[in-house]
Design a protein that fits this description.
457 residues, 3 domains, Immunoglobulin-like, 4% helix, mainly beta, elongated
């Protein structure tokens, strides 16, 4: 009996030893393999946050394919994620050579010692870490940044005396709230140039972003924003508010309406000759063109009325971005001359706005401004005769009842030789005319028309 028990115990011991020699007998994981960072370097040793550096490294693993090489920056005892280089090629070794972008985040000191921490991982759980020291990180400083508002406004931000991390614009009038980004560079067309640094919204914070990043929201606890400051050290922005100045044009005072299928906002207002008016909200947009004969755009937030004192209706075309006007009384000679036709219209920066013969609404005809006795000025956009209609034509009239018209051969023409016609016909631009903005000065008694090219404000 005793011998049988001994044999049983020896058999169990043998089975135990066999099981212990086979880690995978019951599906247990193999022992972890540890990857190796054989060599690593980052150049240059001194760099500016927001620039790129070059990393080179030789990495391997004894048994298991590699996964990634993660790079973190250690600044002031905190970790700033830089990048993770993908090494999933199925290989157990790799030679790394890559340019990596060094991020700029809040509260990064200038001319300070920093280090890089490299973490090498295989596709399982093995990891190896190495710290590279002896680096110096510098803050970027700029001669100018740009506040780029989503509705199209661009405002230079200049560094402030005593704190070159603060960039501000202090002589503006903006809405009390707006969305924006901050750019290091802009294009000739006032668009963000993403080859430079761009600050925007990332997870509810101001961060450097790419083209797909979000916009930031600004709010001043008052009627308008008169100053904007960006702190590039703390990554904070602030706005200074103020009350509306008077007299003014504000979209809140306009009424939305539709004219011939187009969206307009209108306002009846008493205007005073040579009076300056503050403009706010959408009416301060830099792409908006105020009637160039009746308004002088002094700056983005102020216009000067050039017409005669009286009661008028303003027409803001939100689609084509222009402001026209008509007097409350029916316009007629000798206070006004009226121009109607086809293929002409109000100057606009974004649309080829055109009239069509008639006097039914503000879209049909152009109002001239009387600049001296019997002398009138009108500025119009003229389409190319080959565009849309295949022809362009117009005539001046003394009233909206088609009265007092004068045809092409009634006038002598000076200035740019772009107008032509046949006896008894309408006035036509010459074939091949360069479409654009032209100003006609009409002497109604001397029967002359001077033509000049003008630029949009």
């Amino acid at each position: 009996m005793k011998r049988t028990a001994n044999i049983f115990l020896m058999s169990m011991a043998t089975l135990f030893l066999l099981a212990s020699c086979d880690d995978n007998r019951y599906g247990d994981p193999p022992q972890a393999s540890i990857p190796v960072i054989t060599s690593a370097a980052i150049e240059p040793a001194t760099f500016t946050y927001g620039d790129s550096v070059t990393i080179t490294a030789a990495v391997s693993d004894p048994e298991i394919p590699l996964s990634a090489l993660t790079v973190n920056l250690m600044v002031d005892n905190r970790t700033v994620p830089v990048t993770a280089l993908d090494l999933r090629t199925g290989e157990t070794s790799a030679d790394v050579s890559a340019k990596i972008f060094i991020p700029l985040v809040e509260n990064m000191p200038d001319n300070a010692p920093v280090s890089f921490v490299l973490t090498l991982a295989n596709i399982r759980t093995g990891k190896a870490t190495r710290e590279l020291t002896g680096f110096t990180g510098n803050r970027p400083y700029f001669t100018q940044l740009y506040l780029v508002i989503d509705n199209g406004g661009v405002y230079p931000l200049t560094p402030q005396a005593g704190n070159r991390d603060n960039y501000a614009v202090t002589d503006v009038v903006l809405s009390r709230s707006f969305t924006y980004r901050i750019a290091q560079k802009i294009t000739a067309g006032n668009q963000i140039d993403y080859s430079g640094l761009v600050w925007g919204d990332s997870n509810g914070k101001i961060q450097l972003i790419g083209e797909t990043g979000g916009s930031l929201f600004a709010f001043a606890n008052s009627d308008i924003t008169t100053a904007f400051t960006f702190d590039n050290y703390r990554f904070e922005a602030s706005q200074t508010g103020a009350a509306y100045a008077t007299p003014n044009f504000m979209l809140d005072d306009f009424t939305e309406t539709t004219i011939d299928g187009e969206e307009f906002y209108t306002r009846q207002v008493a205007l005073t000759k040579n009076q300056e008016y503050n403009v706010y909200n959408d009416l301060a947009s830099q792409i908006l063109v105020y009637n160039m004969d009746f308004f002088d755009r002094i700056n983005p937030n102020k216009v000067k009325f050039l017409g005669e004192t009286g009661d008028y209706t303003l027409y803001y075309n939100k689609t084509s971005q222009y402001v026209a006007l008509l007097p409350e009384t029916s316009p007629a000679y000798p206070d006004y001359i009226l121009v109607t036709g086809g293929g002409i219209g109000y100057p606009s920066k974004i649309a080829k706005e055109h009239a069509w013969w008639g006097f039914g609404d503000v879209r049909n005809f152009l109002l001239t401004r009387k600049i001296s006795a019997d002398v009138y000025q009108v500025t119009m956009f003229i389409l190319s005769p080959s565009d849309q209609y295949g022809w362009i034509g117009f005539k001046p009239y003394e009233n909206t009842s088609w009265g007092g018209e004068k045809k092409y051969d009634a006038f002598t023409y000076t200035g740019l030789p772009i107008l032509e016609g046949t006896p008894g016909s309408n006035i036509f631009p010459k074939v091949g005319i360069e479409e654009g903005i032209y100003r006609l000065t009409i002497d109604w008694s001397a029967n002359t028309i001077n033509v000049a090219s003008v630029d949009l404000p």
